[in-house]
Each structure stands twice: as C-alpha cells, then as structure tokens.
C-alpha cells in the first residue's frame, strides 16, 4: 500500500512538471506569436535606368529579397528559442548579433531602390532649385558641385558598404558618411537623405569588380531628387 501511494505521488508529481513545462511553452508562444512579417517592396523596384541595366537591378533585387527573408527567419528563430527557454544560449546571442546586419541590409536597400528612377525630369539637379536642401548643401560645402564631389569620394572609400548623405535632426546639419557592411558606422538618430550602395553586387554585372567609379557616375544620373528632397523635409 505504501509503495502504491509513493508510485501515485511520483506520477502526479511528474504530470505536474510536464504541465508546468507546457504552460511555460504556451506562455512563451503567446507572448511571441505576433511577429511582424516583412515583405519585399516591389513598388520600389526601378527599371530602365541609364547606365544600370535591368539585369543588374534584377540580380541586386534578389539579394535584397534575401535580407527580407533572413530578417523574418531570425525573428522566427528568436521566438522559438525563447519558447524553448534558450534565450541565454549561444545560438540566441548569435542571432541577436546577426539581426542588425540583416535588418539594416533590408532597410538600406529600400532607401537605395527608392531613390532611383528612370524619369529624366526627376533626374535633373534643377529639381532642387529653391529647396531648403540645396540651400543647406551650399551653405555646408560652398556649392552643390563641392558636395557632389565629396559624396562621390565617400562612395569610393575602400571597403564594402554604403555612402549616405545624412541629416542630423538635432542640428539640421548635413554630412556624407561611409557605412561599412550594413551596420558598422551607422550613426544613431541621423536620417538618411541619399543612399548609395557600393557593395560589388550593386555594379558587377554592368561594370565588373573594378568599375565602382563608373557605377557611381551612373547612379548620380538616375537619382530621384524629389524623393531625396522630401526625405529632408
């Protein structure tokens, strides 16, 4: 009789532990279930550009979609690891570190594709005439041409990454900066105004591995200055 009572007690205790584990998993899933699913923004995909072929854009776009998918995948992995009680594990920490690379890769590509157009009217520098952005550029660099030369040189910085014209919302100052990869050198709170991708994948189809300079010239000819101006407002 005593053994029977002990067996019953052990079974009840084990059932209790299983129930608690399931409750913890369900609580974790409940807290983490509403994960936003990012999607590629097809409306941003340019075509018919001058000096940047559709083949180049199509190859580049596939890489952008990869970043979108990886962001969603990491979010799902983090949710699962949390539900499994593994939020202090090495793999969880690795995914957290990786997230900034993938997420910034997604967002910077969206800025990049958005500020390109085949509309020649919007490609004209004159669209910035009488704008606060052009006034600020001239007051900062002395002339629009000086700024443009500095921006191009920023894009020629050795390494993979991005050339970005930023504005500092706190001071309204403009600055050209180079971001290595997608996440190194990003300045917190600075707002991107013009974004240029200078990873080799952005130009190798058209300009080979050593064609960054020619690619940058082509990029400038396709900038949508209305978009750039509106980002500054």
Any overview of this molecule?
This protein has a domain at 120-232: minor pseudopilin epsh fold. The chain is 58% helix and 10% strand. It has helices at 2-32, 54-83, 90-114, 120-123, 132-141, 144-155, 204-207, 212-221, 225-232; strands at residues 161-168, 173-180, 191-197. A three-stranded antiparallel beta sheet has the order 2-1-3, sandwiched between helices. Helix 2 runs antiparallel to helix 3.
Provide the descriptors you would attach to this structure in a database record.
9 helices, 233 residues, 10% strand, mainly alpha, minor pseudopilin epsh fold, three-stranded antiparallel β-sheet
Assembly state? single chain
Q: Sheet with the most strands?
A: 3 strands, antiparallel
- How far do the termini sit from each other? 82 Å
How much helicity do the residues have? 55-70%
Q: CATH class of one domain, please? A: Alpha Beta
Average predicted confidence as pLDDT:
90
SSE succession? HHHHHHEEEHHH
Secondary structure layout:
Blueprint: H1 2-32, H2 54-83, H3 90-114, H4 120-123, H5 132-141, H6 144-155, E1 161-168, E2 173-180, E3 191-197, H7 204-207, H8 212-221, H9 225-232
Helix pairs in contact: 1-2, 2-3
Short summary of the structure?
Helices cover 58% and strands 10% of the residues. The protein contains nine helices and three strands; from the N terminus they run ααααααβββααα. Strand 1 (161-168) and strand 2 (173-180) form a beta hairpin.
């Amino acid at each position: 009789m005593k053994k029977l009572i002990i067996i019953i007690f052990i079974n009840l205790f084990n059932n209790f532990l299983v129930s608690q584990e399931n409750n913890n998993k369900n609580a974790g899933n409940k807290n983490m279930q509403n994960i936003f699913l990012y999607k590629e923004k097809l409306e941003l995909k340019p075509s018919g550009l001058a000096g940047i072929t559709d083949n180049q854009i199509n190859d580049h776009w596939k890489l952008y979609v990869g970043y979108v998918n990886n962001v969603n995948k990491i979010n799902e992995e983090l949710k699962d690891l949390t539900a499994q009680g593994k939020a202090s594990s090495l793999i969880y920490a690795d995914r957290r570190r990786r997230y900034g690379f993938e997420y910034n890769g997604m967002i910077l590509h969206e800025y990049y594709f958005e500020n390109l157009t085949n509309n020649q009217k919007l490609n004209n520098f004159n669209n910035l005439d009488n704008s606060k952005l052009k006034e600020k550029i001239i007051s900062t660099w002395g002339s629009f041409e000086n700024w443009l030369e500095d921006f191009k040189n920023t894009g020629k910085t050795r390494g993979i990454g991005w050339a970005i014209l930023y504005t500092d919302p706190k001071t309204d100052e403009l600055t050209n900066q180079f971001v290595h990869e997608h996440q190194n050198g990003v300045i917190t709170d600075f707002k991107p105004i013009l974004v240029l991708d200078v990873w080799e994948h952005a130009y190798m189809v058209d300009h080979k591995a050593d064609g960054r300079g020619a690619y940058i010239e082509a990029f400038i000819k396709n900038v949508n200055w209305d978009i750039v101006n509106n980002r500054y407002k």
